[in-house]
Amino acid sequence: MATFPVLIVGSMALDDLELPSGTFKNVVGGSATYSALAASTFAPVRVVAVVGQDFPEAELEHLRKRNIDTSGIERREGNTFRWAGRYSANLTWRETLDTQLGVFAGFDPKLPASYADTPLVLLGNIHPALQQSVLEQVRQPRLVAADTMNFWIEGEPAALAAVLRKIDTLVINEEEVRLLTGEHNVAKAAREARKRGPRRVLVKRGEYGALLFDEQGAFFAPAYPLEEVVDPTGAGDSFAGGLLGYLATQPEITPLSLRRSIVVASACASYNVEAVGHRRLLTLTKNDVNRRLDAFRALIHFGNELFF
Ligand code: AMP
Fold this sequence. Notes:
By secondary structure, this protein is an alpha/beta fold. The chain has one domain: Ribokinase (UDP-N-acetylmuramoyl-L-alanine:D-glutamate ligase), CATH 3.40.1190.20. 34% of the residues lie in helices and 24% in strands. It contains 10 helices and 14 strands. It has helices at 31-39, 57-65, 128-136, 150-155, 157-164, 174-181, 186-195, 235-247, 255-272, 286-300; strands spanning 6-9, 13-19, 22-29, 45-51, 68-69, 73-75, 81-87, 94-100, 120-123, 143-146, 169-173, 200-204, 210-214, 217-221. The strands form 2 sheets. Strands 1, 4, 5, 6, 9, 10, 11, 12, 13 and 14 form a 10-stranded mixed beta sheet that branches. Helix 3 (128-136) packs parallel to helix 5 (157-164) and helix 8 (235-247) packs antiparallel against helix 9 (255-272). The longest helix is centred in the last third of the chain and has 18 residues, at 255-272. It is globular, with a radius of gyration of 18 Å. The structure holds adenosine monophosphate. Adenosine monophosphate is lined by residues 11, 13, 15, 29-31, 83, 99, 125, 233-237.
């Protein structure tokens, strides 16, 4: 069965993370890194991003070893995007301590010609005008998914509205879909978001899993109840990457193949949070994912027989 390539656009970063388990500096991160590593478990990946002179070449080599094409990663004069965050003791919230845009400030995604025919596209959380520019450089993809955040919802509503009209799948945090639509109830918020363009909306709810709203109704995938979460950074990005990576192995995008992909996405995110930064994803295999799918089956199976 043919596996299609996946195009991923987003940030590549060096993060400083203050976690309950310690402080970790210069951890490789960014939405594109997490998404690409998760997707590469299933499919060939093409990345469009920008890094500075300080980004270790060995890290790009790690990506290439996982069938990730890095020819769309531009290395520019200056520093890589840097983000610093501090998590609460129970990891339920985090605050941004510092953001240094560096070369990311001048990011103008230019797709190598060989990327133009990529059938599955993930627009990571970047300026909506840049997301739009990427869409103008690809030819009729089968599926376009996009992520966004409060910064763009509040700061660039018109540019974001234009992107929403062009995508079919919105992958968004619960708080952000509320902000986008002004609806508190998640089902109502998703319905409203769907009116603005995407035919399906996937709401990420952290440790409470993810909800899909599409033409078939609602679907729920739990987050795996891990006893020990080490670092939630990139959970949403690895979820989105796993989603598109697995969809790329499917001959058709149907409501069922999408639902299967969402469970795979949740498995990828659950592995990502088990180690600091992108470390666990570097070695993630289909076998690992399979084991967690079994655990999910056990988690939600309560027999098919009638109760009464
Ligand atoms: P997540 O935990 O899924 O929100 O993703 C965390 C990653 O997003 C970190 O590795 C950061 O480097 C990156 N990040 C943080 N702020 C931004 C931003 N404003 N734009 C792009 N990427 C960001």
